[in-house]
Amino acid sequence: MKTSKRDSALKLESRQVGPATVVRVIGSAGMEEAERLRALIEDLVTRQVGIIVLDLADMDFICSLGLSAIISGHIKCRHYNGQIRLLKPQPAVLQLLETTRLTQLFPIFESLDQASKA
Amino acid sequence: MATQEKTTAIPSDFHLARKAEDELLAELARRGYSKGSLFSIKLALEEGLNNAIKHGNRLDPKKIVELSYQVSKDCVVIRITDQGSGFDLGAVPDPTSDENLEKPCGRGIMLMRAYMDEVHFNADGNQVRMMKRNT
């Protein structure tokens, strides 16, 4: 497991689950942390990772900069038929995704097993 | 608990803006604001401060963002002012339309309006005033 960790409101932990790279997003993806999320997603997309699962079960906040990082990754990975999937967003985050209609862009899963399938 | 008023001048820096934001959110938490209200206010603050720093002040560290607020147990009024030349509110596209969904940017104002009870911009476009009732 690779961990991107600092004394910060955001922790990112990546691991492989079957064909998917699962990124556990822990804490707050706000304006100060969004760039780290962007950099990690960018790295995965550059390596053409086919299935990127963002595990949001422990992410209690995201702002538009965090959303921008995910959307940018979505656009780039589409070029190689990759996909970003969202796993178990907390209710407030799910409502935010619905308010922004980003539920139209990203498949949302409640089970890691389903989210990580090819 | 009496109404608290505070004004802070923040250089155009996300870390310093976050410290000011945390101070306000801590005050609201002390006054018993609900978890839902705190989420909404945090989101609107982040969007407003990000817009002021990134778009208004163009990340110029010499430019200041002024954050002022009045907090009571029932509601909070927040003003964010940047030193930029403003913008045309009417020219901001709808980020929820089909043609704009995949655009990485442009959601800040929509989110402020969705999550706060009142949002007003001054005529110059360099100040936003927002109000949220504790629910």
- For the termini of chain B, the CA-CA separation is 18 Å
Beta-strand percent range of chain B:
25-35%
Question: How many DSSP E strands of chain B?
Answer: 5
Backbone CA Rg of chain A:
13 Å
The residue-averaged pLDDT of chain B reads 95
N/C terminus separation of chain A? 21 Å
What is the helix/strand order of chain B? EHHEEHEE
Structural class of chain A: alpha/beta
- Range of strand content of chain A: 25-35%
Give me the strand/helix succession of chain A: EEEHEEHEHEH
Counting copies of identical and different chains, the oligomeric state is heterodimer
Separate helix tally of chain B: 3
Task: Write down the overall geometry of chain B.
Answer: globular
- The shape of chain A, in one word, is globular
Helicity level of chain B, as a percent range? 25-40%
Explain this structure.
The complex is a heterodimer of chains A (about 120) and B (about 140). Chain A has helices at about 35-45, 65-80, 90-100, 110-115; strands at about 1-5, 10-15, 20-30, 50-55, 60, 85, 110. With about 120 residues, chain A is of the alpha/beta class. In chain A, strand 6, helix 3 and strand 7 form a beta-alpha-beta unit. Chain B has 3 helices and 5 strands. In chain B, strands 1-2-3-5-4 form a 5-stranded antiparallel beta sheet, covered by helices on one side. Chain B is globular. The two termini of chain B are about 20 Å apart. Classes of the chains: A alpha/beta (about 120), B alpha+beta (about 140). The interface of A and B includes residues 30, 61, 64 and 96 of A.
